[in-house]
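Dear support,

Our group has been running a series of protein-ligand predictions, and this particular one with adenosine-5'-diphosphate is the one our PI (initials K.S.) wants archived with full inputs and outputs. We had some confusion internally about which version of the output was final, so please treat the block below as the authoritative record. The input we submitted was:
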Amino acid sequence: MRRAALLRPSVRTLESDSLAATEMQVRLALEASGAAMWIIDYARGARERFDARSCELAGLDPNVESWPPGTFCNLLHPDDRALMQAACEATHAVPGRGPLVEYRIVRDDGEMRWLQGAGIVRRDVQGRVRQFIGVSVDVTERKRLDSKLRATIEKLGEADRRKDEFLATLAHELRNPLAPIRNGVQILKLSMGTDETLVRTVAMMERQTSHLVRLVDDLLDLSRITRGTVQLRTSRLALSEVLSGALESVWGPSSAKQHELTVRMADEPIGIEGDRDRLTQVFSNLLLNAVKYTEPGGRLELVSRREGSDALVSVKDTGIGIPKQALEHIFEMFSRVRPADADAGAAGRGEPGLGIGLALVRQLVEMHGGAVSGRSEGLGRGAEFIVRLPALGELAVSPAAWPAASRAVEHAGEVRAESSMPEGSSAVRASAGRRILVVDDHADGAASLEALLRMLGHEVRQARDGIEAIEVAQAFEPDVIFMDIGMPRLNGLDAARRIRELPLATRPSIVALTGWGQDTDRKRSEQAGIDQHLVKPIELAALHRVLDPTR
Ligand code: ADP
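Confirmed final output from the archive:
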């Protein structure tokens, strides 16, 4: 019995053992984490004690056992004293650990360190504060990297903004030279005879100009989308109507490559809510890619159907296909399948392009609450792109939009290509004989538009700036004014405003013809009394629509 009692350790021994163990654990944790500890001993006249790591960080002598009150406070960076005061008060106010704070200390040698830490208050049984214990870690290096990273991100953001602005300006600037080139091509087209070489050359020039215009449009859209300035003008639409619009842009190119283009529309009308132009852009981008990446004689297919509450559109081709590893990247900005991804046999990869089209498609589809995906069995095995958009419950659009495209239509591209060319002699006659004022400080742009309009049978005058425009408008009394916006002396918006105040016999139709085509630009035109806002370079079909709105 006595023996057993001797072997059993007393309660006091056990307690002191576990206290020693806890202390060991704390010391190990402090050392392993590189944490520093300091204590303010209120029981000893608020003298302060710093452990070895604290002394190292603060540049204090580790042999000094305790320091006078206020030592820690004096180490604090002046800008952080209020913060630490508040943290200290908060720690006294709550049981347990106080808030975690980041603060700076400045050593005697002038070196500054960032610390992160928290404190805790120890009280006696009467609740009086006996000690304030603080533990901190050195985060100077992390802070330095953080601020370096922030500066780099800011710099990159700034460079990115400048790049976007540059792209927007570049695209705008490119429109000015493109306008007279496109006008010139139309003039050649209207005046050329039947010389085969000439006909082929003009057709080639027209195709390449359209290609350039599309590249410029993509560049502009890219900068708008990255700057988040794209606004959708949504309305209730018939999907078939949007698809028919998109098909307009592919009949020509697909017939040129002798593709067999099949269109199968859903049996029932499908209504969607969206921006007609932007959705048309989505599907014409996909269709034009199908044309671009399919060898001559290949097959293309456009199919639409309803699936549950979604409208589904598939654009499929038998073209060069997309390698598996490239599929997941093709919707990223500037992503193009490189020959390295598409090894030998990837003929046709040399197609021109910026790698923007599919990125735009995805952004626009997602802005409509939809999704787009791409599929391909691999190289040489064609590709399919599927767009899913939320469908409306019931269709509330004009029935006129429906019948033409509602049936399954199968035909070869060439047949439709002819009917997609509205410019012809009948069009010329229909809108001839109007009095037109062309206002543009870009001499070639004005001269070529004037020449084109004269060929179409109109009476035309020119003005080089806003002031001249007002004078000519007064004397000439035009039916239609094509007005550039950015001009010296008086810009197009102010000129339009002042023309609207003139006592003219008939109200001229004012059409802005400018490189700037953002929604804000359109709104400004509207506010200035401008009837229509068109972006350079104008297409002949658009010109006809302006001059003869009944078309
Ligand atoms: P771009 O055609 O200007 O290069 P896109 O963003 O439209 O840019 O397309 C990205 C890439 O995806 C293309 O470079 C092309 O390699 C691939 N791609 C797109 N559509 C097809 C398709 N129908 N068939 C094969 N490859 C395609």
